[in-house]
């Protein structure tokens, strides 16, 4: 059996590394995800592209400059709420301020939606996975999951906005579903399915 393809993941977030490896293990094909910390750290990136794809591309390109021999993987993701004209969007992680904890972001979101009826609380999560190969070629893969924003947090699992997001077709929030149920239907899972197919088809 051939060795698994290794990706150097453009993040300093250990949780994201674990989740991405779980996605790969669950959905295939066989790969190994290494966080940027394992390779000396993630270079600073100003995520000001204005789009998920643009921010993911910036992160991948910056790490590729430091490790041109590696298959570099980056992601950018966020929550878009229809009633808030797509906010928090690319500012999801910083909605309540720079590097705000998830609870503060959720609190601000629920304040913004106070009094908004259930039928107008439509939202969707987006993830763009971006790959830069050693030869400089670039590939992007987008995943999206639609759902609604709950009136209050429910569940202790997941991270970020998971406690207030209920995906379509489910009766529980992302935070209540557990990884085995959440990962295949999540925005990251759906993006990974596309990336996995690309790898199986030859990976570039």
Task: Summarize the topology.
Layout: E1 5-9, H1 14-27, E2 31-35, H2 52-66, E3 72-81, H3 102-112, E4 122-132, E5 138-149, E6 165-167, H4 174-177, H5 179-185, H6 187-200
Parallel strand pairs: 1-2, 1-3
Antiparallel strand pairs: 3-4, 4-5, 5-6
Helix pairs in contact: 1-5, 1-6, 5-6
Question: Helix and strand string, N-terminal first?
Answer: EHEHEHEEEHHH
Radius of gyration: 17 Å
Which regions have little confidence, pLDDT < 50, spanning 5+ residues? none
How would you characterize the largest beta sheet?
6 strands, mixed
Question: Termini, distance in Å?
Answer: 21 Å
* Structure classification: alpha/beta
Order of strands, widest sheet:
2-1-3-4-5-6
**Percent helix range:** 25-40%
**Number of separate strands:** 6
Tell me the number of helical segments per DSSP (H or I, 4 or more residues long): 6
Q: In words, what does this structure look like?
A:
- The chain is 32% helix and 23% strand.
- It starts with a strand and ends with a helix.
- Helix 1 (14-27) crosses helix 6 and helix 5 (179-185) packs across helix 6.
- By secondary structure, it is of the alpha/beta class.
- The protein has helices spanning 14-27, 52-66, 102-112, 174-177, 179-185, 187-200, and strands at 5-9, 31-35, 72-81, 122-132, 138-149, 165-167.
- It has six helices and six strands, in the order E-H-E-H-E-H-E-E-E-H-H-H.
- The model has no long low-confidence stretch (mean pLDDT 94).
- It has a six-stranded mixed beta sheet with strand order 2-1-3-4-5-6.
